[in-house]
From TrEMBL:
Its EC number is 6.1.1.20. This is Phenylalanine--tRNA ligase alpha subunit. Coiled coil: none annotated. Tetramer of two alpha and two beta subunits. Mg(2+) binds at E273. The keyword Nucleus does not apply. Its cofactor is Mg(2+). It holds the Pfam family tRNA-synt_2d.
């Protein structure tokens, strides 16, 4: 840097010469115009308008001029720096606009593209409703019990008081595993778990058994060779059919809402005595569709009642087969159809929908857990 001048000699302060200032300005303007993006412009700003740029350095030289020469030089450098600053500002605005425009295009989101590449799926409504049904009893203090789906014939039939010639034991109804003498079957109901529960647990026993069952039915709108039941078993001192009725009423209230009647119709099962079929009042029409001239009801086919399943007092022979003293203990049991419950509770019209595994069927039921 030059020392203060005593005698003014324009050659000594060549940075202030008009052509030098012009050159520095023109170089700056050319570089600004050539800056292709904001990063480049930043470099250009540093080189041509920063503290160490030729024009800034020239500006600092002004002080060294004799007072008479300062004004003119100051004006010249000031004008050049002003022109550079103005060009920088304009180019900055231009490049920012360009960048914004480009970003808008580059970062465009195509809202019509499929968004869900890993769809969450849904639980099968049979699983959900089975858990719900069981939950009503769990809330009354029942425990969940389980048993194998490949079951010994003894549990599935003998211990439940099926006589050897009972028609249910034939090939017509039962899937045998291996030959008939292996005595292994796919369980035809969840009732064998009654026997397992009584053998495995201490009395009193209060269990519900949700599970898969098998019968040699053809798949059609109302039948499937694989279906589900919810078994219930209570064995305690002093239990009566009134307790069974109360439990069924609580189940209907818990699943379908309060105020619906239930009814027992006499029936027969080898493992309960007496036995009944249990119906509930239709929760849609509440029986009104039975009246002559009333609107038909799709849920109960205008019967007014919906069949829930079978039930009864545990046959003392079953208690004896399980080592329970029938003089001291009594019990009741029920078996409810899970598919049937799903069909009328949710208006599912065909068994096919439940077994075909089409996600469009399960999705509307959602992820309820
Ligand atoms: N196991 C019987 C059936 O599958 C239902 C049932 C269970 C009946 C318990 C009475 C008691 O049809």
């Amino acid at each position: 840097m030059s020392a203060p001048n005593k005698s003014y000699d324009p050659v000594e302060v060549s940075a202030l010469a008009p052509e030098e200032v012009e050159r520095a300005r023109d170089e700056a303007l050319a570089a600004i115009a050539a800056a292709a993006d904001l990063d480049e412009l930043k470099q250009v700003r540093l080189a041509h308008a920063g503290d160490r740029s030729p024009l800034a350095l020239a500006n600092r030289e002004i002080g060294a001029l004799p007072p008479a020469a300062r004004a003119e030089a100051g004006k010249r450098v000031g004008a050049a720096r002003g022109a550079v600053a103005k060009a920088l500002k304009a180019r900055q605005a231009e490049l920012e606009e360009e960048r914004d425009r480009r970003v808008l295009v580059e970062e465009t989101v195509d809202v019509t593209l499929p968004w869900d590449r890993a769809p969450r799926g849904a639980r099968h409504p049979l699983t959900t409703i089975q858990e719900r049904m069981a939950d009503v009893f769990v809330s009354m203090g029942f425990e969940i019990a389980e048993g194998p789906e490949v079951e010994a014939g003894w549990f599935n039939f003998d211990a439940l008081n099926f006589k050897p010639d009972h028609p249910a034991r034939t090939m017509q109804d039962t899937f045998f595993v291996g030959s008939e003498d292996t005595d292994l079957v796919l369980r035809t109901h969840t009732s064998p778990v009654q026997v397992r529960a009584l053998l495995e647990r201490d009395l009193p026993v209060y269990v519900v058994v949700p599970g898969r069952t098998y019968r040699t039915d053809e798949l059609d709108a109302t039948h499937s060779p694989v279906f589900h039941q919810l078994e219930g078993l209570a064995v305690d001192e002093g239990l009566t059919m009134a307790d069974l009725r109360g439990a069924i009423d609580a189940f209907v209230g818990g699943m379908f809402g309060e105020g619906l009647a239930t009814r027992f119709r006499p029936s027969y099962f080898p493992f309960t005595e007496p036995s009944a079929e249990v119906d509930m009042q239709c929760f849609v029409c509440r029986g009104a569709s039975v009246e002559r001239g009333a609107d038909p009801c799709r849920t109960c086919s205008s019967e007014g009642w919906i069949e829930l399943g079978g039930c009864g007092m545990v046959n003392p022979r079953v208690l004896v087969a399980c080592g329970v003293d029938p003089e001291r203990y009594s019990g009741w049991a029920f078996g409810l159809g899970v598919e049937r419950t799903l069909m009328f509770r949710h208006g599912v019209e065909s068994m096919h929908d439940m077994v075909e595994g089409d996600v469009r069927f399960t999705l509307p039921f959602g992820m309820e857990i």
